[in-house]
Write a structure and sequence with these properties.
Mean pLDDT: 75
Radius of gyration: 28 Å
Strand content: 25-35%
Number of strands: 21
Low-confidence stretches: 99-108, 294-330, 456-523, 546-577, 688-706
Protein name: C2 domain-containing protein 5
InterPro entries: C2CD5, C2CD5_C, C2CD5_YbjQ-like_dom, C2CD5_YbjQ-rel_dom
Shape: globular
GO molecular function: calcium ion binding; calcium-dependent phospholipid binding
Structural class: alpha/beta
Helix content: 25-40%
Largest sheet: 5 strands, mixed
Strand order of the largest sheet: 13-15-16-14-21
Organism: Balearica regulorum gibbericeps
Length: about 700
């Protein structure tokens, strides 16, 4: 193929033979060079250049394909940054349709690789490496060479052997630039980009070693351009792969001799870093087995031979030959403090606060090291807008403000989800935008999943939480949109009229399925729809007042609930919950099986207001808007007959405000897959004929929005 790129991030076992590493390419273009915007030839030529560069990078790593591939753009006025990234890999030809590969690749693939470490083995020639790196024999099979660190844009392969748990690692960077127009602006951005890439890579490497880990998965680097600044945000999930060598520590080296105070400060920082590494290893349960030194095959080098990370541009050009990333498992990763930027890097290492006890976070679908998930999930979207002060704005203060903004956003999520402990925030997706001058917008979408600390799932549920009948499809086929407003606690088939009859009264449980279904009165359909609309209005008013409701429970004493229940054919169903369509950014639902895909959902929403202050300011406006987006997506999926949305993503969130005129506008684009799912516990249960059924109120899994 011309471009053997795969946008997939998860693959079946054995599909990935070797993984070479991350390949990326960026290009700065001027949109005014497109003479006819309606003709896409120019844009196609731009992307063809990017893809050709990605392909050449993959070939330099000895790979013939790119997996986890993605493309993105960042536009400010007439300047556009085109970005593409992926993971160079060698694929198993047995999984490909044509099966045509080069002879050397087939011969290499035919060599048996032990499961769990084969994808870590280097695909390139050891004697002609494309970049400086230290190789060691695989710690799992002792046969092939592996690198000391591995960066990828894909999820962790299922066959990978991991020690301990993973964690979310982020690199954040801001750089000021002068305001310019057209070609001068594009030139300044082009000059900044290589150094920003280097800074982001340096932060990722340092934070990875600070956590005692040796591999990154799900790496996503976003470069955003604004009128007077560039922002970079890299997110990945760090893990400890058993096949790779144990990372060394981080050693700080100063350049100011004969200064007692400075040396004391350096010593104090070194002690804090060593203590942090030890705490992280304990927190993430990283306890690799000790190996004899002769197996490692690399002695501890002298301090003068150790690798150095140089921030200075002049020194980096002179010391390229010394940039050897690591020498064995006990060598330290030296950070040389030669300027204020380097000291800033050291401080940024220690400002990242680990999650509270009971919380874990990752940007991949599954947290490495945790497999005992429960069906309880809670998806959320948070948007935070901050206005920067233009007084004495420097790179250091800008970095600190950006770092604090991201850290405070994560802390607020941990606080709001504290009732779900122990849980893990999976598929944490950050998006940074610079909609206006001095305005920074951060949006994050993730899902919180609880897990069982005792390594045992609740396999045996209460009888009321089991499936006690097979839904009759005779009457459902007569309805184009089967509806159900009173749900059972599991919400496994929220629109099944047969389930409504079963929950309502024990007198109907002994009737045949067809009779139970036909006993439901659908004549008051319009009244029930009116009640549903009134309920949505009530919830919207509650949201605008500033309260966050995570359940859709109806108050038994409320007049709305009484009117709602009057329209039901079974009056004994009290204290019921409205069945909420599940939403998750994951491609699956824990503890459930997707039985049918109903199609893709791609929706655009626009809201504007001329009374911003009266609606609670920016927070109130965005909160209400996102809640409405969730409600409309759920309603659309319910109309299709589905009960869940998987692979949910908020692709765009463009917010603009005019505080002087009390106005604001926002555009949101979301997409996902509408599906029908059934709980695995229901599939395993045989039909039961209980004498009574008691409805229990449970959380309906509403969304927390900010």
């Amino acid at each position: 193929q011309e471009f053997p790129f795969f946008t997939l991030t998860t693959f079946p076992p054995g599909f990935l033979v070797h993984v070479g590493g991350v390949v990326s390419a960026r290009s700065v273009k001027l949109l005014d060079r497109i003479h006819n915007p309606d003709e896409p030839e120019t844009r196609d030529a731009w992307w063809a250049e990017i893809r050709q560069e990605i392909k050449s990078h993959a070939k330099a790593l000895g790979c013939h394909a790119v997996v986890g591939y993605s493309e993105s753009t960042s536009i400010c006025e007439e300047v556009c940054i085109l970005s593409a990234s992926g993971t160079a890999a060698v694929l198993n030809p047995r999984f490909l349709q044509d099966g045509t590969m080069e002879g050397c690749l087939e011969q290499r693939i035919e060599e048996a690789s032990p499961p769990g470490c084969g994808f870590c083995h280097i695909p390139y020639d050891e004697l002609n490496m494309p970049f400086p790196a230290h190789l060691t024999y695989c710690y799992n099979c002792r046969k092939q060479k592996v690198p000391d660190v591995l960066f990828t844009t894909i999820d962790l392969p299922v066959e990978a052997i991991v020690i301990g748990k993973g964690c979310l690692i982020q690199a954040r960077l801001c750089r000021l630039k002068k305001k310019a127009q057209a070609e001068a602006n594009a030139t300044s951005i082009s000059n900044l980009l290589p150094f920003m890439e280097y800074e982001v890579h340096t932060q990722l490497m340092n934070k990875l070693k600070l956590r005692g880990m040796n591999a990154l998965f799900g790496l996503r680097i976003q470069i955003t351009v604004g009128e007077n600044m560039l922002m970079g945000l890299a997110s990945a999930t760090g893990v400890y792969l058993a096949a790779l060598p144990t990372p060394g520590g981080i050693q700080i080296a100063g350049k100011t001799p004969n200064d007692g105070t400075y040396e004391q400060h350096i010593s104090h920082m070194q002690k804090k870093i060593n203590d942090t590494i030890a705490k992280n290893k304990e927190l993430y349960e990283i306890n690799p087995p000790e190996l004899p030194e002769e197996i490692i095959g690399s002695p501890i080098p002298e301090p003068r031979q150790r690798s150095r990370l140089l921030r200075s541009q002049s020194e980096s050009s002179d010391e390229v030959t010394e940039l050897d990333l690591s020498h064995g498992k006990k060598d330290a990763f030296v950070l040389e403090i030669d300027d204020t930027d380097a000291m800033e890097d050291v401080h940024s290492l220690l400002t990242d606060v680990p999650p509270p006890s009971g919380f874990y976070s990752c940007n991949t679908e599954i947290m490495p090291g945790i497999n005992n998930w429960t069906p309880e999930i809670q998806m959320f979207t948070a948007v935070r807008v901050s206005r920067l002060s233009n007084v004495n704005l420097t790179n250091q203060t800008l970095n600190k403000n950006f770092n604090d903004l991201c850290e405070n956003l994560l802390k607020s999520l941990y606080f709001k989800l504290r009732s779900m402990v122990p849980c893990c925030l999976c598929h944490v997706n950050f998006t940074v935008a610079l909609p206006e001058d001095e305005l920074v917008q951060i949006a994050v979408t993730a899902v919180a999943i609880t897990f069982d600390k005792n390594q045992a799932l609740q396999a045996n549920k209460a009888p009321t939480e089991k499936s006690q009948q097979r839904a009759s499809t005779d009457n459902e086929e007569q309805l184009q949109f089967p509806l159900e407003l009173c749900s059972d606690p599991l919400a496994s088939q929220p629109f099944s009229p047969a389930k409504e009859a079963l929950e309502g009264a024990s007198s109907l449980t002994r009737l045949p399925a067809a009779q139970r279904a036909t006993s439901i009165d659908y004549s008051s359909f319009a009244d029930r729809c009116n009640s549903w609309i009134e309920l949505i209005k009530l919830k919207a008013q509650t949201i605008r007042r500033g309260s966050i409701k995570t359940t859709a429970s109806l108050d038994k004493t409320s007049p709305l609930a009484e009117g709602y229940l009057r329209h039901r054919s079974v009056p004994s169903c009290t204290n019921s919950t409205v069945s909420v369509v599940k939403m998750t950014p994951l491609s699956f639902l824990p503890g459930a099986k997707i039985t049918k895909y109903l199609g893709i959902i791609n929706m655009f929403f626009i809201r504007e207001t001329t009374s911003l202050r009266e609606e609670g300011g920016v927070s109130g406006f965005l909160h209400a808007f996102i809640a409405e987006v969730f409600a409309m997506v759920r309603a659309h999926v319910a109309a299709l007959g589905g009960n869940a949305v998987v692979s949910y993503i908020m692709k765009q969130c463009v917010f603009m405000e005019n505080p002087n005129k009390n106005q604001a506008q926002c555009l949101i684009n979301v997409s996902g897959d509408a599906v029908i799912f059934v709980r695995e516990s229901e599939l395993e249960m045989l039909p039961v004929q209980p004498s009574t059924v008691v409805s229990q109120p449970t959380s309906s899994g509403g969304d927390v929005t900010t």
